[in-house]
Amino acid sequence: MVYVKQLDFKMIYKGNTYHRVADFAKAAGVDTQLVLQRYKRGWRDPYQLAKPPIKKHAWHSPYKINYQGIKYSSLAEFCRQQRLSYNKANRLWVSGIKNPKELIIKATLKKSDIALKMQRKHDYDQKVTILKKYNLYTPKEIAKITDIPLKSVLSSMHDLIRTDSRKNKKGISVIGLRREDIVDFKKIKDGNDLLKISNVTAIPRLVLKESAIKHIKEKQARSKSLELEPFNFFDEDYYYDKVTRTMWKLTKTGYKQINQSKGKFALIHNKKKYYFAESTIEDIYQHPDIKYSQLYSATDLYKILNISRSYWSSHGLGENLPFQHVRFNYDTKQNKNGWTKAELINSFSKNEETRKFVDLLERKLN
Q1: Pick from 34, 106, 228, 272: CA 20 to 30 A from residue 298's CA?
Q2: pTM, 2 dp
């Protein structure tokens, strides 16, 4: 048995006695955990315990400064105009130093800081010159030209440079970008020389060829020319192109083609994968009226006909049956392979071995 030591709490506040931390905190209008922490740290004055917490990040509200007849609406504006380090000036202001002259003396940028910023600007200009020389583009420029979010371009580049990735063996991303479109800035002669002598943080590691624009726009054109129909088997944004017999999913960057795995499409619903063959998808479009509740699986037939699986196989009861339909039940989150009542009766009537089961099927199948 585990014994829990009770907190010996007793406070007299505004004429009332409180034996519970929660009751005291409610009466004082402060958070219970704050009172508890203060009490455990040794606070015993009830009025000190009832004090509201000190608001942090007071720098969110701008500090107004008057200096040499000029009114600055915030500390940040004052630092920009006077070429000061905002971090230093903010620390000084919070510590109580609010005289503009003292701030200028103590928070002025050092010559080394200014030189570093100028060096970065110089490196950036050199980088732009080299990119133009070799007809290369930054990810930001590609995103602007192709009207694709920069985040999507960067994530596609990240996936493609991982050559050992099992997910992308073809080397083509969702947006149409290819592995050969990406160039390492270090492998460019001028770029490598620049990296040796300049500030590395101003240079991007990966840039893109002009062919990247062509490939992305080709993918966008193909997506627009597709004759897609909604795939209503799931409630996700899946689409099927009957002409090319391909499955697509609508994403933030456009339509993404679903690749086949062992001749089947892997569709995700509620974080679970379901595999569909082309024939199954074609059947769903050919027979849209067939529902999950209208299907009878082979297991259902074993019970209805009171036969075993081996009897079914040895007597060839399923030889004349048509292709099984596949439908999904949203309530049970399960799919069923089976046949309709009309298909079963029609198929069983053609064979002498199965004809004896027709009457039984008509009685038991609703």
Answers
A1: 272
A2: 0.39
